[in-house]
Amino acid sequence: MRPPVLPVNDNAVVAERVRLRVLAVDDNAMVAEEVAAMLSAAGLEVVGPATTPEDALDFALHAALDAAVLDVRLRDDTVFPVAKVLQVRRVPFMFLTGVWSAVLPVEFETVPLLAKPFRRQALQQGVWQLLAGPRA
Predict the structure, then answer these.
(1) Cα–Cα distance between 113 and 79 in angstroms, integer?
(2) Are 92 and 130 in contact (CB under 8 A)?
(3) CA distance 74 to 125
(4) What dihedral do alpha carbons 110, 115, 119, 123 form, nearest 10°?
């Protein structure tokens, strides 16, 4: 017996079927919860959300992940150590930022960047592109 064929354009159905896990990281708890809700609405399983650099790093090191959405600034620090772990693990990620003056290190210049405030559709589309793309 063959498994059912899933609709090609129904990302939420695909995500729920295969349980795609996306790490959400933002130091603002309200924004983190909003990002998590947007990802859940797309049928994705949210890991976190992490609101501290320590929690984000713990998830990046130990959680099963398919992708990640990372706020560039975490309190008085950056998310770059977390991003480096994700690169080593070959987990695709994108950055969120409300500060356009944020300078990305050279190794992250090609990482997708979504400006805050953003629309749900833009976040969801960005994550789907990460999930559809090749692993680094």
Answers:
(1) 13
(2) yes
(3) 24
(4) 30
In degrees and rounded to multiples of 5, residue 71 shows phi and psi of: -70, 135
Per-residue model confidence as pLDDT tens for the chain (136 residues): 333 333 444 555 454 556 899 999 999 999 999 999 999 999 999 999 999 999 999 999 999 999 999 999 998 899 999 999 999 999 999 999 887 656 788 999 899 999 999 999 999 999 999 999 876 5
Whether the Cβ atoms of residue 21 and residue 47 lie closer than 8 Å to each other: yes
- The answer to whether 51 and 32 are in contact (CB under 8 A) is yes
- d(CA 56, CA 32) in angstroms, rounded, equals 12
Can you give the residue ranges of every domain in the chain? 11-132
What CATH architecture does domain 11-132 belong to? 3-Layer(aba) Sandwich (3.40)
Distance CA 89, CA 100 (A): 27
